[in-house]
């Protein structure tokens, strides 16, 4: 990858569910990445779209930790919703990127999954699902939301949750990012995650975890720009890389 394209990955995930009109240097609209207009070129999937659930969340599913109808918050192209729907769950995926939602809908049709639905909406302000979901899953969304919007996001998903609902979130660990750009993602410490979420949910566990991605060549080592420096980057099967994360498990009291 060309050096001038390297900052793109760190900016993209924060824009993921907000499709903002980016005006500062290096920023761009996340929707364009799903359209193939981003820095990775045409027909190249975003690094975070790995075609299946993040392994940490897939393990929870196989352990039987998901229950009831499932809200997939910031679903992107719907990998976790589709995986769950194939296992008999009714799922609703919400995201602000229309191209990602259309991709998820098309894949649901292809697989014959009428129990997986997808809608374009702002995850920090959506309505119409009050008390519905037995499980809310957040696969790398939390750190993509501006810190100032976290309260609105947490309020919205708690409103949509049924009594006793489970909440699982996979979030970048602050320790994996030695230096952060002003407009990059917002990784957290375990204490920061606990403080934010515990206002709305009862925390059961915050455990060290990994987030997997198809990182382009050149992102796995310092490139002279602090935007691209990861601590604890690790090689994974299938040519992927993983970075440190937190896996939060909580329930609605």
From TrEMBL:
Example of a GO MF term: methyltransferase activity
User: Which residues are in the Methyltransferase domain?
Assistant: 70-164
Protein's UniProt keywords contain Protein transport: no
Name by which UniProt lists this protein: Benzoquinone methyltransferase
Q: Keyword set for this entry?
A: Methyltransferase, S-adenosyl-L-methionine, Transferase
Q: What GO biological process, any one, is recorded here? A: methylation
User: Which SUPFAM superfamilies does UniProt cross-reference here?
Assistant: S-adenosyl-L-methionine-dependent methyltransferases
CDD domains, sorted? AdoMet_MTases
Against Pfam families, the record matches this protein to:
Methyltransf_25
Which InterPro entries does the record match to this protein? Methyltransf_25, SAM-dependent_MTases_sf
Q: For this UniProt entry, which segments traverse the membrane?
A: none
Q: What is this organism's lineage?
A: Bacteria, Bacillati, Actinomycetota, Actinomycetes, Mycobacteriales
